[in-house]
Every structure is written in C-alpha cells, then in structure tokens.
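Q: What would this chain look like folded?
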Amino acid sequence: MTLFFNPFDPTVRANPYPHYEELRRDAPVHRSPFGSIVLMRYDDVVRTLRDLPMSRDIEANLAPIPGVQIPTRPQRTARSILNLDPPDHTRLRRLVSKAFTPSAIDRLRPRVQEQVDAALHRMAEQGVADVVEELAFPVPFAVISDLLAMPTENHVEVREWSQALTQALEPIASADDYAAAAVAVERMADFVTAVIEERRRHLGDDLLSAMIEAEEAGDRMSTEELVAMVVLLYVAGHETTVNLIGNGLLALLRHPDQLARWRDDPSLDAHAVDELLRFDGPVQFTARVAMETVRFDDEVVEPGTLVMPVLGSANHDPAHFDEPERLDLGRANANRHLAFSSGIHYCLGASLARAEAQVALGSLIRRFPSIELVEDPVWRDRITIRGPSSLRVAVGA
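A: My prediction, written as structure tokens:
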C-alpha cells in the first residue's frame, strides 16, 4: 500500500501526530495522489521555507493539476501579503511591520491583561465555562479590534466570516465551502472598506490610520491593498490565536505535571508558550510552488509543482527535538519550532500571539488552582488550522 499524507482521513484530522510519525519514518518525502510534494522532516521544511526558489503566489505560479480546480480570488480584492512574493511582499510588510515589533507588543500587554482579567472574572462567576467562548476568542478579537480601532458590535458576523474564510483553506473544502468563502470575502470587504473610508476622514492613533498614512519612498497602499491587509490582520489576528490558547490549555490539562510546573514558575512564560506551539500548533502545514527544478532525496520537483511543508510534523521531528511526543515546558530549543513558519513569510503577528497566549494561559492557571475538563473537547473538523471549537472546564478557587 502506498503511504501518503491523507488529511481526508477523519482519524488524521482528529490527531495527526501518529500519522506524521509514520510518514517521517517511511515516506518523509513523497508525491501525493494530487501531484504535490509533501515534506515531513524538519530540515526539508526549513530548506523550503528559507532557502529554495519557492513562491507563495500559488494563484500565479501553480501548474494546472488534472482534475483539481483551484478556487479563484474575487476580483475586487487585492492579493493578501500572505500570498505575495518579493518585491510586493517586501514593500507591504515594511509598511506594517513596525506595529508588530516586540516593543510595540509590550505596550499592548496591559490591554491584553485587562481583557484576560475580565474573561477570567466571567469564568469565575460561571464555575463551568467554555474556554473557547469566554477566553480564547474574546481576548484576541478584542485586542486586534483595538489595534485597528475596528467596530466590534458585529463580532458574531465577523467570526462567521473568518471561519468561512479559514474553512476554504482546508484540503477537504467543498465547492459549497469555496462559495461561502467568496460571500464572506465580499461581506468583510464591504465592512472593511466602509471603515477605511470613515478613517480617511478621521485619522486616529491606531494601526489602520498608520497604514493609511504610511509612506516610504513615495509609496502608499491602495484601497484594495488596505482592504486585503485589514482582512488578513483581522482574521489571522484572532483565528490562529484562538486555537493556540485552546490547544495549549488542553495540552496542559492532559499533562498536569507541566501545568503545575508553569503555575509555580513564572520564568517559564516564554518557554512554555513556545513548547505549546511546538507540541500542537494551530497551523499544521503551508504551501509553496517550486520556481526552479529542485530535489528532495530521490524526488525531482519540477517548476510549477505544489510543495507542502508539514509544519506540525517538522515540530515533532526527533532529529531536532528529543522525545518530541513529550510536553516539556522547559525544553531548551522549543523556540526553534516552525509553528509561525520561517523565512520571509514568518508570521507577522508572532510576537502578539505569544504575548496573548502567555497572558491568557499564565493568568488562567494562576487564577484557578483547580481546572478540570467537564466533557471531551469538541474539535473542528479541520487540519490546516487545528483547534477545538468547544473546551468546557470547571474552574475553582
């Protein structure tokens, strides 16, 4: 039987790590039934993300795949920075990167703590609460909304749009999922465009105003580029962090010795979040297109071929992480994980996600000496962005 990465298998989506282990051992580089090259080892993933002639602009560079239709982007939207190559990627990233430096994120910590404290107060009053609904979603959503100064009264709609957009990233996405994502893009674009038009008339001390005003060498973002950037920041700014907090808490509850270790040692804050990202990060794989002929082992990859570096597998590669299936919040090299990707497309919001998770999880485990699952977590039926949709716990002082 031919062994290949199979995200269509429900057991893989529920827990991909045993599947990754098997593939790293027996098929670390292989061609999927759809013609893409799948990479399971850390070194191959890093080489692809940092060193090889690869493109993130799949729309422009992917060779046609027989029997596979790539969904088209709505024409009214510009391509996201996530899917651009230099020099366009370099230009846009430079215009927004100052908002996400570690020093800029440090200035946001009091606001993050304020949001977390309010969420933990609600949980304390309830006694039994869904961590996703009460903490993991509201905190990152409020923080990214504050950062952009976006209105929050339609948070339910924005969350639905975000989930429709991320569902379309799944290998198992259907035609209906793509149609729903197209509708979500249109509605979110309408919402964001209206906010941009209003902000142009009344600039403030916020990231969106800064992006409107940002100019280097006579260059400014077009309205279409601003819309694409805000949509990306809005969605990525909370969607992945929701799953980081959910996955992280579940890992701690399943490893109570590590939870107690972190609770008793605040110096582990940074190490702890990096290890949780390594252990079960929210983004499991990414994609690139080969721009020149490259080789992995005996596999020759022609230009135009889709290459899939599996981040979740690389983070469990025993060649780089001793006993990778063991959660160790003091792991010395945990920060070498690839949960935020690597190279020029390293996650722009990595510092913000780390800070939010440090404050949210660190405050949670220290506020409540007792945190217990009251029912099995409910997982989203996803693999690209992995996380629970519901995580109900009982908390006690």
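Residues 100 and 349 are 6 Å apart (CA to CA).
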